[in-house]
Structure formats: C-alpha cells, structure tokens
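Ligand: calcium ion. Inputs:
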Amino acid sequence: MFDYKHAVIYQIWPRSFQDSDRNGIGDLNGIRSRLDYLSDLGIDAIWLSPVYASPNTDYGYDISDYYAVNPEYGTMEDLKLLIREAKERHIAILMDLVANHTSTRHPWFQEALKNPDSPYRDWYIFRKGTVSSPPNNWLSFFGVSAWQKAEDDMWYLTLYTEQQADLNWRCPEVRKEIAKIVNFYLDLGVEGFRLDTINTIDKDPNFPSQNPEKKGLQFPGNLVLDRPMVKQWLKELEEESWGRRDAFALGEGVMTTEASVKEYCGNGKPLQMMFQFDTVCLGYGELGKYDPRKLYLITNQQFKQVTRKWMTAQQRDHTWLGNYLSNHDHKRHLDRFGNDGKYRVRSAEMLALYNFTLYGTPFIYQGEEIAMTNPKLKKQDWRDYEAFHSSKAMTEILHIPPFLAEKITSFVDRDNARTPMQWSDQKNAGFTEGVPWIQVNPDYPAWNVKSEQADPDSVLNFYQALIRLHHEHEALCTGSWRELIPDHPHVLAYVRENEEERLTVILNLSRHAQKAVLPENEIVPSEDLLTSTVPRALTAEMKLLPYEAHLFLHRKHHS
Ligand SMILES: [Ca+2]
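Predicted complex:
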C-alpha cells in the first residue's frame, strides 16, 4: 500500500491548476506538464479532485458519468498517461470518489425521476410529503430545503445543491455499483481514494423533522451525520474494492467526532485516514461559513484547543488524520489563521511548520506553497454556485440585508480558493494563454512559482525544505505528540519524539511579539533546523517576534 504515514499529499483542483489547450480551463495534460514541479517540490501523492463527467453545478462533485472523464479536462487516455507519468516520478494518484450523491443529470436519476416503477427509483431517496410541502424540515448544506419535488406529493432528497440527488445506500445495487467504480479506477493504476462526505451516506430511515418545535428549516445534524450504517457499508465496500487490492482510502468526515473517526479508521477498520472539520470550521456560525454570527473571530486559544483535541484523540484511539488548513471548500487559510498583509511570508511559514509537524499526514492545497491569498471577488466575478445560493439564503434565513450578504459572501466564498495557480508573472500568471474561466488573483506578478523559486527565502523554498525534513525525520511522521505550555494564550509548543530523536516545535500564533517560558526540564541541547525568522537557541525563556516559528532537533545518544 501507498506509504501514507510517511507521505506528503498535494491536492489538485484541476479546473484551476494548469490549462494546456488555451480554453481557459485547467486540464489533465496541464497537470501532466507540471509533474516535474511537483516532483521537485517533493510530494508523494496527488489527491485529484473530481475529473469525471459532470454538468459542473458543483464543479465535478456532481457526477453524471463515473466511467467518463469530463471532456473539458481531457480523455480517459490522458488520465492513464497522467497516472503512468506520475508513477514514474514515484507520485501516487488518489482519486476523489463522490458517492453520497450523483448529479440529477445522471442517467440513473433521470430514469428514476421519469418512471416511478423503474428499478432506479430505489437508487435514490424518494419520500412522500404533501403536494405543497416536503417530507420534513431538513435544510441542505447550501441553505435551502433538502427536498425537491418529483411529482404530486413525491419528493427526493438533495442534501447538497438541488442538482445533487442523494444516493440510497440501503439499496444493495447502489453499493455494488460503487465498488465497481472503485475497482475500475484501481485497474487503471490509481493507488487510492478520498471519499467525499462519506459520513452522510446513512440517513435516519424514518426521516423525522429536526427540532420540529422550531419554525423554519433546520440543519438535520445527527439525523444524517455519522449514523450506524456508515461503518458497516464502508467495511463492505472495503472488502469488495480497495481492501482486496491493498489500496488506500481516506474519508471526509463532515463535522465528524472523535468517536466516529475511531469507528471508521485505524487497524482493522475500513479506512486508513480521515479528515476532521473542526479546524477549518473555526469561527463559523451554526449554519456554516455563510453564517457570520460568530463574526469569524478565532482566538489562538481555540486554535490550540482544536489542535490538542485531535492530536490527543489520534494517539489515544490509534486513528490517523490527514491534516490540512485549506482546500477547495473554504477560503484560503492565510487571512483566517495568519496574516495576508505585513506578515504574509512569516505567517505562511509558521502555519506550514504547524501543519507539517502535527501527528498525521500533511496535505498541501495547490497554491498554498506560494502563499496565495483570497482575492474576495465581486459578485459579477463569482463562479461558485454556493456563493449565489448561500448569499440568498443569508438574506432569507438570517435576514441580512442583500448588500451586506454580498460583502460577506465575497469574504468567505469558495471562489477565493479557486483562482488559477500562479506560475509566473506572464499573462494570466502562466495558467492559460486563453481567457481564464475565473479571474486570476491580481497579485500574481509578485507572487508566483517562478519568482519564489529564484528567492532562497521564499515560502515555496520553505515548503520544499519542510517536505524534505518530513521525509528525513521519522519522529515527524510517527513520533508521539506532546504539548508544552498549554495555557499560553498565543504560543503553541509541542514535542514530536521517538527513541532516536526529539523535535521541539515553537509557534507564535499571534501578530504580536510574545514571551514564552518553557519548563526547564524540556530544554535540551538542540539544533534549529528551520526558522521563519532568525535562528535562535532553544532556551527556557523564548522571546518571539510576530508569527515566529522554530523546529528544534535533539538527537538522542544511546550508550
Ligand atoms: Ca484546457
């Protein structure tokens, strides 16, 4: 199996990575042309966001044919070539499996919708409501009713957009088909899968309303998250597909819990790795990123608390996380957890050092290695369905005036993370010679791969050094994680340790200088391997500049 415990994984969102045929849309041959870049960076695997046929309501997360490549991205032959050429560079390709739902344009759904007697009716979730009201009060993840009308009093479930119909995993034919899809791609040489929203595949079979005493639509929460059948269906899928082939599987756990992760992941469990949502949801209100009621305020204590929670859980429960700060579903992380102005470089490096020294496997989202930021596009430049949908829902559900809803949307919108990769200071950042499908961040002349490659102090070179260190130091992969000074309001410090070495990580999470006093018994002669500012010795009392970060190594000598 792909050695996930020693790997660094790079997420590619194909539409915005590299265009190869001047139509303004990133594609498979574009990715292939950048394999040398990824190989030089030192990554071990690519998680490829969906490249399947899709009407693009949710850019590939709404699949209309699982056995076809979206013609905008290329052909099945291009995909095979990408897998082969990546393998030649010792880079594994991990595909995205979107199996909670399909596009409503998928022929299975079209058949189910047209013909109530079709066997495909049972592949989806059709339930009776009344002619004018849906079967229950569930709110979708996109801020509208989770039900769409089929005919008369019959409705179907769409937990995401209304063009993504939830599959009925209780139907054995559905589960058989999903195993077939996984096996099809494993046959092509794919080494594993990231399973999209995998903890929502089981819904309460009685479909009760959530908090029925409350007015209006309600987020279904425990009625759709981490329900009892998820574990069993994953086990069955594992036995029918990746388990047989010694392939890798990673699950996206939407708002998942430590107890559920323990059920899905670890020795003898169906998955090798999970994603948690606590870190990336810091500062969000009850209804998610478009709910500004918490004003997106995050304290460094909260950041430390979430870190502590999951580092402790993994070691206690023998589970394994993929650690990430950004992905295609959230704005980029610099102005959330760091600073995208004066301290752009230093906070990008501090956060990278954090993500690469946690217990679990580090993920890089395309562009974070050059410190890309959020352009906060105006409404006329939005491309994401969620942005339009959710800004409307903000007005309707939270009664936020439209001008303010628009402003908040520009601030949190997923388009922020989806502007083209900035390769050079040439036209359109070297992403395309055509017209890019989404605006390029205007800061590209100063922030791009080419200029950062030439600058030894760049964020890109810092990432490259971190990846190398991750490969060189076993303790960074499998060593224990132990926190120092948990009560400090702004400095996060911890030790990664095994029998051979001990690595001490010290991170100033704040935009102000901080003093940290470490316990005397933790101070051992150490070498500062990597620093985002100036080299310093490890001392009991550390005075740290804003976002200053250190990685100290102590080699143990055995007598
Ligand atoms: Ca293209």
